[in-house]
From TrEMBL:
It comes from the Bacteria. Substrate binds at R7, H8, A9, E10, T11, V12, L13, N14, R54, K88. It holds the Pfam family His_Phos_1. The active site is at H8 (tele-phosphohistidine intermediate), E77 (proton donor/acceptor). Keywords: Hydrolase. One of its GO terms (cellular component) is cytosol. SMART domains: PGAM. This is Histidine phosphatase family protein. It comes from Sulfobacillus thermosulfidooxidans. GO terms for molecular function: fructose-2,6-bisphosphate 2-phosphatase activity.
Length: 191
């Protein structure tokens, strides 16, 4: 098994430090450039993308002509509920935000999902693709990918905030030949 995990490129809401959740925010001009820089860097494997516009647009901008992109709602970002559209600066002052920072594994976004809900969705999709294909690409979102990484590494979701994953980050995941261990390495990271 070999795959690439890609976080969508920068959106206009990323620039404003606003929680997006399931909002369909467009890519910023910088995000379009980030996604286009991935063109020709990645192999022409099947692409599975979150069905949210920012992920699909990222995939469309780097995909080779004729490369298939399959939208999958299981790859969406966490549903942040009533926090969707709120700035991190505003939320950062609240006790609920502090609770999320301290104990992410037990936190549920108000009227939204928990990280465990999110992890179950994306892990299920990942293993389904792995059963069908030897090689594939996933385009998803920050917390979605980070929750998958926690699962693959055997880490608690309480460690999710220790993972750095900027916009348009690319991670290469593969089984090492010698010891059959899963290897995860960054490939192409943007500022």
């Amino acid at each position: 098994m070999e795959c690439y995990l890609i976080r969508h490129a920068e959106t206009v809401l990323n620039r404003k430090k606003v929680l997006q959740g399931w909002a369909d925010a467009p890519l910023s001009d910088n995000g379009i450039i980030q996604a286009m820089k991935l063109s020709g860097v990645l192999p022409p494997w099947p692409i599975f993308s979150s069905d949210l516009k920012r992920a699909l647009h990222t995939a469309e901008l780097f995909a080779a002509p004729g490369q298939r992109i399959q939208p999958d709602a299981r790859l969406r970002e966490i549903h942040v509920g009533v926090w969707q559209g709120l700035s991190k600066d505003r939320l950062g002052q609240t006790s609920l935000w502090q609770q999320y920072q301290r104990s992410p594994s037990t936190f549920r976004f108000p009227a939204g999902e928990s990280l465990k809900d999110l992890q179950n969705r994306i892990v299920g999709a990942f293993y389904e693709y792995q059963e069908r294909l030897d090689r594939f690409i996933i385009v998803s979102h920050r917390l979605a990918i980070k929750s998958l990484l926690c699962h693959l590494q055997g880490w608690s979701l309480d460690q999710i905030h220790s993972i750095d994953l900027p916009n348009a980050a690319v991670l290469h995941i593969y089984h090492e030949q010698d010891n059959h261990q899963l290897a995860i390495e960054p490939v192409f990271l943007h500022d």
